[in-house]
Amino acid sequence: MNGVHDMGGLQGFGPLAAESETQTLHDDHLFDHDWERDVLTMTLAMGATGTWNLDESRSVRESLPPAQYLSIGYYRVWLQSLERLLLNHQLITAAEQASGKSMTKAAPVKRVLLAKDVSTVLRKGAPVNRAVDSLPAFALGEQVRVRNLHSSTHTRLPAYIRNHTGIVHKIHGAHIYPDAHALGQGEQPQWLYNIRFSATELWGEQETRRGDVHVDCWEPYLCTQS
């Protein structure tokens, strides 16, 4: 969707304050407040139940009102999105959300992530590559154009590359298609490509810095350059 979350290529948000690799290895630099640790914990624990998938959770975060999304901070976005997911899947009621107290018997979930298993589960991850019968439509080194798509629902196609031309740099294989997965339409795996764009192609002729931008694009986002 064309939401405020899609900030790639936008201006006016100020410089990024990058932390060193050494800093990011320490827990103190991952959270500004103790409650943020709890939000991350709850989000991971509920995601592990299998009640919803990663793409659905991203879609809910993106659907927050723009002013709210920009003003409440990273982990409050996660928290309010988690509350929406719990409501959508009837794991809590609106009255429970308002009171902060459980009023009904807990609904059953598919899986429970135990504390002793957290490290193993996080290290293992959840692979999203899939086997498909079709062959990739585009070859390495081929010039392709990104389709000018304006989805009203979740997509991993950033706005700043729409209708631009790039080169197929790498073929990752077939992966879960997030645009369908977020809507509960199944995995519908599609071929995934790494596309290389020149800086001038994306930012215009006035761009004097040399370099390329690489973006992973699912096959439905692409077409041949005519």
TrEMBL record:
Function noted in UniProt: NHase catalyzes the hydration of various nitrile compounds to the corresponding amides.
Superkingdom: Bacteria
Reactions listed under catalytic activity: an aliphatic primary amide = an aliphatic nitrile + H2O
Keywords: Lyase
Designated name of the protein: Nitrile hydratase subunit beta
Family per similarity comment: Belongs to the nitrile hydratase subunit beta family.
A molecular function GO annotation: transition metal ion binding
Transmembrane segments: none
Domain spans labelled Nitrile hydratase beta subunit-like N-terminal: 1-113
Matches recorded under Gene3D superfamilies: 2.30.30.50, Nitrile hydratase, beta subunit (1.10.472.20)
Domain called Nitrile hydratase beta subunit: residue spans: 128-222
Record bears the keyword Hydrolase: no
Lyase among keywords: yes
Enzyme Commission code: 4.2.1.84
One matching Pfam family: NHase_beta_N
